[in-house]
Amino acid sequence: MLRFALSRLLLVVPTFVGITLIAFLFIRILPGDPVLLMAGERGVSPERHAELMAQFGFDKPMWRQYVDYIGQLLQGNFGHSFSTKRPVLEEFMARFPATLELALCAIVLATVLGVAAGILAAVKRGSWIDQATMGTALVGYSMPIFWWALLLIILFSTSLGWTPVSGRIALTHYFPSVTGFMLVDSLLSGRPGAFASAVHHLVLPTIVLATIPLAVIARQTRSAMLEVLGEVYMMTARSKGLSPSRVIGLHALRNALIPVVTTIGLQVSVLMGGAILTETIFSWPGIGKWMIDSISRRDYQVVQGGLLLIAAMVMLVNLTVDLLYGLVNPRVRHV
């Protein structure tokens, strides 16, 4: 197990280096001068422009800028935002709870509904229920997030007026942030209606962000369940007179969950990618919207640091899933 863990850890190093290189180069190939963008309509003199270029290190060769960037990262310094002058890590941590709250709600919804749909489709294999469930999952997987979000806004927010369009809570509810999670903070505030308002604001973004992971989990659960249901020990369990719920819930699902858990872990990257669009459409003050705004401002330090922190989080989750998978299934350690 130790050798398996070390092999997975060694794979993280080149991946992390590659991500730093991609993040560094990607933002610099975008058109636009960051100094001129910071100056705005006021403009800047050639002398001041050269001074700022030297101050931010943009006058150095590209390789030198990359070496300096890696040196800062090794010291735990992700730089400072050009626009707000605040440390990138500080801004990231201020917005991360909003994204984490949305992602957790989305993955819980996707897991509960996806596993249930996959089990139902496997048990009713070949029936109209199976075809309808998997057909719906395929549509959900193929649905563009921005289009799906706009449809839900038009229906539930504009036409029916059931849910708000943007934000995390109504402006009438103001209370100091304790945990950064609006659901928890609204409960701690004790203000009447605050928690309900936070839930109403969370419903549509959660549904939009959970749609694609839900479809993937449902299809993976059905595939894993069908494989397990065909095993000899399942026929043995039925021959012993066990109830169908016990055979499905205890014996089949227990063994089918191993690949499903791996799939759930891999959906973290999908959630992070989907959060960028979802947060932008719903004006959700998380790291996704923060990244989009930073790209438009050519805020190099924020984009680089944000991409790196998001990638590190995704790699950490995937590494944890790999290690858990190897712990549960010893055969994986020898692959």
Give an overview of the whole structure:
- By secondary structure, the protein is mainly α.
- The chain has one domain: MetI-like (MetI-like fold), CATH 1.10.3720.
- The protein has helices at 2-29, 34-39, 46-56, 62-74, 88-123, 128-142, 145-159, 182-189, 194-229, 232-239, 244-281, 287-296, 300-328.
- Helix 6 packs across helix 9 (194-229).
- The longest helix is centred in the C-terminal third of the chain and has 38 residues, at 244-281.
- The N and C termini lie close together (12 Å).
- The relative contact order is 0.15.
Give the helices and strands, then pairings.
Elements lengths: L1 H28 L4 H6 L6 H11 L5 H13 L13 H36 L4 H15 L2 H15 L22 H8 L4 H36 L2 H8 L4 H38 L5 H10 L3 H29 L7
Question: What is the string of SSEs from the N terminus onward?
Answer: HHHHHHHHHHHHH
Taken as a percent bin, the fraction of beta residues is: under 5%
- Count of discrete alpha- or pi-helical segments spanning 4 or more residues: 13
Which CATH architecture? Orthogonal Bundle
Query: What fold name stands as the CATH topology?
Result: MetI-like fold
Structural class: mainly alpha
Structural domains: how many: 1
Q: Name the CATH homologous superfamily.
A: MetI-like
Taking the sheet with the most strands, its summary is: none
Average pLDDT, all residues? 79
> Percent range for helical residues?
over 70%
Count of β-strands: 0
Radius of gyration from the alpha-carbon trace, in angstroms = 24 Å
The end-to-end distance, rounded to whole angstroms, is 12 Å
Give the low-confidence spans. none
Shape: globular
Query: In the CATH hierarchy, what is the class?
Result: Mainly Alpha
